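[step 3/7] fold_predict: job queued, chain A
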Amino acid sequence: MDKTAIIHIEGLTKRFGDFTAVNAISFDVKKGEIFGFLGANGAGKTTAIKMLIGLSKPTEGSGTVAGFDVNTQAEDIKKNIGYMSQKFSLYDDLTVLENIRFYGGIYGLSRKRIKDKSAQILTELNLESVGKSLVASLPLGWKQRLAFAISMVHDPAIVFLDEPTGGVDPLVRRQFWETIYEVAEKGRTVFVTTHYMDEAEYCDRVSIMVNGKIEALDTPQKLKQQFDAASMDDVFLKLAR
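[step 4/7] structure written:
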């Protein structure tokens, strides 16, 4: 095991009856790394991430996330990670400030801490002028960045992004990745699932799942060399075939 690993997984498996959705996957993720968890729809990404974030108990295998055991400490994992889903997890009928306060309360932050974090998030995202506006009124790119900031309101060491750029245009996707870089530069680990192969190029390392197994894991550059491919799209096509 890599002693700098903030995620350490060995032989993680999930079965539903006779169907094996995740088949004995093993990997480490280092502190401060942007780790891409790639695969086509149905490859097993979502099932795997549910085990990592404490929402689903593994059938077999072991591992730790943020220092907590995936088999026995699911509630501790939930408290110590950030999570952002494709749907952004924001409440459209609450204001920007109300969303921040709501999630701060869920994570058990004190009133003073919530007040400080609210001011910090509004300032960092340049949202001071819309703090009292309903989230429904925000442009998609602002909603996305707000959801990302709120997922880290409790200062977790690692944040999971589950297909966070699904359904948004290329410019907004690129802007969002710039925000991811800023977070990683401050030492936070970012674990991101995506089915956009061009986004793999932005990650420090990438794993590619095919039919429940991790078929490749390395830096984008080394994977392209290994598979004699011009792009991560080409790498994926060779693996998927």
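[step 5/7] annotate
The chain is about 35% helix and 25% strand.
Residues 91 and 99 are 7 Å apart (CA to CA).
exit 0
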